[in-house]
Specification:
Number of domains: 1
Strand order of the largest sheet: 1-2-3-6-4-5
Shape: globular
Strand content: 25-35%
CATH topology: 60s Ribosomal Protein L30, Chain: A
Number of helices: 2
Distance between the termini: 14 Å
Number of strands: 6
CATH superfamily: RutC-like
CATH architecture: 2-Layer Sandwich
CATH class: Alpha Beta
Order of helices and strands: EEEHEHEE
């Protein structure tokens, strides 16, 4: 069974779901999250670390909507406008992950995201 969910704590998507839950040895795929708050407002214009913190809050809300936590994440895919900001991303990631194990991860520099003010987007796969 597949369950598509758009949690109230994350901005309303256009043409996709934030979370796809697969039951029976569950895998959870979380769409790429960007630095928009629950009202759809950009958080941290020009500040990658502030944007990454919001992205991780959105990932946490998406995972909580299916009964998962940061401990269920098995894979990140990170898209950044400028990899020179990787230290700021890592600080935000480490705050989100705490002292637990780190998931597999891919980081890719991209020329643009859906809005020119966005500096980072992260998608995740979780297992439960």
């Amino acid at each position: 069974m597949i369950n598509f969910i758009n949690p109230a704590e994350v901005s309303t998507p256009t043409g996709y779901s934030h979370v796809a839950e697969v039951r029976g040895g569950r895998l959870i795929y979380v769409s790429g999250q960007i630095a928009l708050d629950s009202k759809g407002k950009l958080v941290g214009k020009g500040d990658l670390e502030a944007q990454a913190d919001q992205v991780f809050r959105n990932l946490g809300a998406a995972l909580a909507s299916v009964g998962c936590t940061v401990r269920n994440i098995v894979k990140f895919t990170v898209f950044m406008r400028d990899v020179k900001d990787v230290a700021a991303y890592r600080r935000a990631r480490d705050r989100f992950m705490g002292d637990g194990p780190r998931p597999a991860s891919t980081l890719v520099e991209v020329s643009s995201l859906v809005s020119e003010d966005l500096l980072i987007e992260i998608e995740a796969v979780a297992a439960a």
